């Protein structure tokens, strides 16, 4: 088994510890970490001297379209919106991801070692997203969790796409009605599946879309709700509470207006993209203050790029600009590491530096929120991916 030793770095675990010390990697996992004085160097280990550097867990972009919305192409690489039906829960992001998308290389060279890549927001129900590493050649081997959430969308996007086709939904009421009916259908399908366990004659005809929504009903995966305006956020919450399902608010652009309510209700928010213009009306109150206000209120916050809306390698810059607008630096770091992992349901593997977790580690020349900072080494699953071989 290959061993890699990082020594003499300022190690910020994002699990409550910060110290001058070492990390020992065996294979793809963190085998040990501790104070420099206690270090025992294995004779067969490759050693990286991180003196003067900051060692952090790999960053996690909790909402993007890397791999299914390729930058270089137009329609050739746009595989994240099946705009032929407003309800497509049977779509799976894994089937549209190209691991050779340049966005993956940009991500890992920028210190982003994992992502949640997800269908777009054209549809009321868009399909399931996946959590995956940014290094690898085969999508199936890059996956951490699949499915990791069912994408749904409120507000302008589904109205625009299907209103132009003279289809439902043309209104916010229509969007909510389609989502409710789909969840009712999933509940009915689940009941028939349960009945079929004792009486095979009652098993329903297989329906891939309803199978995906049953995962939501069973609380195996959350709804990932694209919602910018405060009223759309509350509609998403209203429906989630009505059906007793888990929910993550995506974008949450006007979340600062209802921060106390979101904290009281306990729903996490993945905020962004903030490093962009006000491209549509529902972004009119976009502000870098939003993630800080939400975090201070007690909401679990992650910060996203929505790549390729904002280039994925600028994830630390987005967090830094949130700090400039008032967010606590530690909260901002958590928003691109451990909070993202917890929201995505993968904190047992990534998001912090702890024994037994995946060896996804970035060695920074200085704090990543400093504009001149650069990832000197990026390690994914115990393998050095920067500098590139």
Automatic annotation (TrEMBL):
Signal peptide: none annotated. This is Amidohydrolase. Residues 243-385 form the Amidohydrolase-related domain.
